[in-house]
Amino acid sequence: MFNQRWNTTNGRGASRPGTDWKGTSRAIAERISGEERQATAERASDGAAADVGKGMAGSSGPSQTGFRIGRRVNGRGIAGKAAAAVMLLALLSACGTGGIPGEGQKQEAVQGKNGGDPSNTSAGNGQAPGQEAPITDGAGEGPEAKQANDSFPREVSIGNETVTIEKQPVRIAALSLDTAEMVLELADASRVAVVPRSIEDQALARNTEEGRQVPNKIAGAAALDPEQVLSYEPDLVLLTTIHDGERDADALLKQAGIPLITFQQWNTLEKLQQNLQTIGQAIGQEEKADSIVREMQERIASVEEEAENNKIKPSVLILSPVGPNTGPYLLGQTNISYDLIVKAGGIPAVDILGVNRTTKASMEQVMKADPDMILLIQWDDKGDSELEEMMSQDAFQSLKAVREGQVKKMRASQVTNPNLGVVDSLEEIGEWVREYAAGQEGA
C-alpha cells in the first residue's frame, strides 16, 4: 500500500493547466459562508451553544509528523474561516495564472508512503464526468456508533500543532494511496468518501477489494483537485504531500475549516506504524491500530533477530519504475524498501554507490554495484520497456546476482508502497537473504 511518489522538476512557477484556482477559492468561500449562515441559525436553537462549547475537549494522542487544521484554530470560529477565505480569494486573484506552483511536466526522483502515486494514470472510477456517487453516513446510529461519538471531540497532536476533530469522522477523504490503505485497514469502507483511483490496482495497492467499495475515486498526486475534494463534503482529510499538486491542495484545503492531517514520510516501518496510530486516533480506531502495531513489532523483531545470526550480509540492489514505463530507478533511503533490506539482514547496494535518494538508474551504476542480489519491482502487468532493455544487455547478464540466479521479482504493492503487506514482504526477503547467506557459508 505504499504510495510511491516522484518529485517534479518543471512548472514550479506556473499554475496547473486546466485548474480553476479562482473557482476553487470561490468554492471554499461559498462553503464557509454557508457554514456561517448555518452556525447563526444553530445559535438561535436550543443546545447550539453547548455543541460549540465542546470544541477543545478530548484526549491528546501521540505526536507524529504532519500539519493540521481544526474547526477552530487559536480560538478562531466560523467568522475567522470566512475571513481566511476572503484573504485566500484575494491572494489567488492577485496570483492569476502564475501564482500557484504547478506540478511540472516530468516525473522524476522519488520519495519513497513514500514513492509515486500512479493514480493519475490509473483507470477511472466508472462514473460519468461530473457525476458523484452518493455518500452515506457509515457510522450508523446504533449503540456502538453512539459510544464512539462519546469519545469526541478530541485533539490529535501532530508535531507542535493540534487537529481538533469534533465528531467521529464518517466521510473520510484519504487522498493519498498510503493514507487510503491505512484507513481501509482500520475502518469500514462505508465511512470513506473518496480515495485515489490507484487503490483499485493490485500491482500498487493491498486493499483493492475494500477500495472498490468506496463510492468516489479521484486522481491523486500531481493531479489532485481540492475543489473536487470539497464537493464530497468530507469531515476529515488525510494527505501525504510529495508532489507540487498535493502541496497546492494542502494549502487550499487548510482554508476550508475541515480537519486536515498532513503526512510527509512513510519511509520506515517505524514511521508507518506511527502514522497508522495517528490515523487510528483521528478516526476513533486507536485500539485497533495499537493492536496491529503490536503484532507488526513482534514480527519485525523476529526477522531482525534471525538476521543477526547471518554471518554474511549480502548487498541487495532494488531496481524499480516509479510510474508506468518510467524506466528503472535506484531506490534509496527515501523509500520504505531501503528499510526492508536493512531489517532483513542485507546491505542496500545504493550505500555502496553513495546514492542517498531515489534516482534514475544507469547501466554503469548497476555494474559498479555488482550486487549479490537484485530485487526487481513490477509497477504493473505491462512491464517496463526500458528496464527490460537494460536486463537484456550483456553487461547486465554478467552481473554476479544474475549469474548466480539471485534475481527476485515483487510487486510495488509488496515492497515500495507503504501498507501492512510490507511486513509479509520483510519476512519473505529475510528468508531469501538467510538462504543466500547460508549457501555462501557452506561454499
- Could you give me the name of the CATH homologous superfamily of the largest domain? Nitrogenase molybdenum iron protein domain
Q: How many strands in all?
A: 16
The level-1 CATH class of the largest domain: Alpha Beta
How many domain regions? Answer: 2
How far is the first residue's CA from the last residue's CA? 38 Å
Q: Give me the secondary-structure category.
A: alpha/beta
Strand fraction: 5-15%
Pfam families: Peripla_BP_2
Biased composition (Basic and acidic residues): 28-45
Family: Belongs to the bacterial solute-binding protein 8 family.
Protein name: ABC transporter substrate-binding protein
Would you write up a description of this structure?
The chain is an alpha/beta fold and 443 residues long. It folds into two domains: 5-117 and 135-284, Rossmann fold, CATH 3.40.50.1980; 302-442, Rossmann fold (3-Layer(aba) Sandwich). Helix content is 42%, strand content 14%. The protein contains 18 helices and 16 strands. It has helices spanning 21-43, 48-53, 78-95, 143-149, 177-186, 208-212, 226-231, 244-253, 269-283, 286-308, 336-343, 349-353, 363-369, 385-392, 394-397, 400-403, 412-415, 421-442; strands spanning 5-8, 68-69, 107-111, 154-158, 161-165, 172-174, 192-196, 216-218, 236-240, 260-263, 315-320, 329-330, 347-348, 359-360, 373-378, 407-411. The strands form four sheets. It has a six-stranded mixed sheet, sandwiched between helices. Strands 11, 12, 13, 14, 15 and 16 form a six-stranded mixed sheet that branches. A two-stranded antiparallel ribbon has the order 1-3. Strand 6 (172-174), helix 5 and strand 7 (192-196) form a beta-alpha-beta unit. Helix 9 (269-283) packs antiparallel against helix 10. The model is unreliable at 1-22, 32-132 and 135-141 (pLDDT under 50). It comes from Paenibacillus residui. This is ABC transporter substrate-binding protein. Residues 1-68, 103-155 are annotated as: Disordered. Residues 269-313 form a coiled coil. Residues 1-12 have a biased composition (Polar residues).
